[in-house]
């Protein structure tokens, strides 16, 4: 059953390039409600754990190193059909393939530094939200 929630991170590239405010504005303008929000920084260890699902992929080491290279913004978002609608809003993983007007098309430079993360399923949205937020941090 759909929970109508998804999880996102504004990645170190978008934070360093000053896009936090614009990206949050795009997200809320698209109808997502912020349930939880945190400005934090991953370590090599916590980034490795978060992306464990990709451990066997050739890009895993670079991904972990990049995601722990600077602060990120983590958030749980709510909207009907949240996972799918958020993936439409952010665009393709590779910004070169991202549709006009999507967050990655506007703010990302490469497949590694692709500005935002979005959960790929309701199940992973719940797991990823739990990774960052306690029940008391959700409103
Ligand atoms: P994200 O949605 O955070 O999930 C895994 C990340 O790995 C992805 O965004 C990309 O930034 C990164 N990545 C790097 N290379 C690849 C690749 N070849 N395929 C998919 N993801 C990649």
Automatic annotation (TrEMBL):
Keyword terms: ATP-binding, Cytoplasm, Kinase, Magnesium, Metal-binding, Nucleotide metabolism, Nucleotide-binding, Phosphoprotein, Transferase
Gene Ontology molecular-function annotations: ATP binding; metal ion binding; nucleoside diphosphate kinase activity
Biological processes annotated in GO: CTP biosynthetic process; GTP biosynthetic process; UTP biosynthetic process
Principal place of residence: cytoplasm
Catalysed reactions, as listed in the record: a 2'-deoxyribonucleoside 5'-diphosphate + ATP = a 2'-deoxyribonucleoside 5'-triphosphate + ADP; a ribonucleoside 5'-diphosphate + ATP = a ribonucleoside 5'-triphosphate + ADP
Top-level taxon in the UniProt lineage: Bacteria
Record-annotated active site: 117 (pros-phosphohistidine intermediate)
SUPFAM superfamilies found in the cross-reference section: Nucleoside diphosphate kinase, NDK
Compartment(s): Cytoplasm
Gene Ontology CC entries for this record: cytoplasm
Any Pfam family matching the protein: NDK
Coiled coil: none
Keyword Chloroplast attributed: no
Domain named Nucleoside diphosphate kinase-like: residues: 3-137
Cofactor(s) annotated in UniProt: Mg(2+)
Binding site for ATP: 11, 59, 87, 93, 104, 114
NCBIfam families: PRK00668.1, PRK14545.1
Described function: Major role in the synthesis of nucleoside triphosphates other than ATP. The ATP gamma phosphate is transferred to the NDP beta phosphate via a ping-pong mechanism, using a phosphorylated active-site intermediate.
Record-given protein name: Nucleoside diphosphate kinase
Species whose genome carries this gene: Pedobacter metabolipauper
Lineage: Bacteria, Pseudomonadati, Bacteroidota, Sphingobacteriia, Sphingobacteriales
């Amino acid at each position: 059953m759909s929970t109508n929630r998804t999880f996102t991170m504004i990645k170190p590239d978008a934070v360093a390039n000053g896009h936090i405010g614009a990206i949050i504005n795009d997200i809320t303008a698209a109808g997502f409600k912020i349930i939880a929000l945190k400005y934090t920084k991953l370590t090599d260890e916590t980034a490795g754990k978060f992306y464990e699902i990709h451990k066997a992929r050739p890009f895993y080491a670079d991904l972990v190193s990049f995601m722990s290279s600077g602060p990120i913004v983590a958030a749980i978002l709510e909207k009907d059909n949240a996972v799918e609608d958020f993936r439409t809003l952010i665009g393709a993983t590779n910004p070169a393939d991202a549709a006009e007007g999507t967050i990655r098309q506007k703010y990302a430079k490469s497949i590694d530094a692709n500005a935002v993360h979005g959960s790929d399923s309701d199940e992973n949205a719940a797991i990823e939200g739990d990774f960052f937020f306690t029940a008391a941090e959700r409103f």
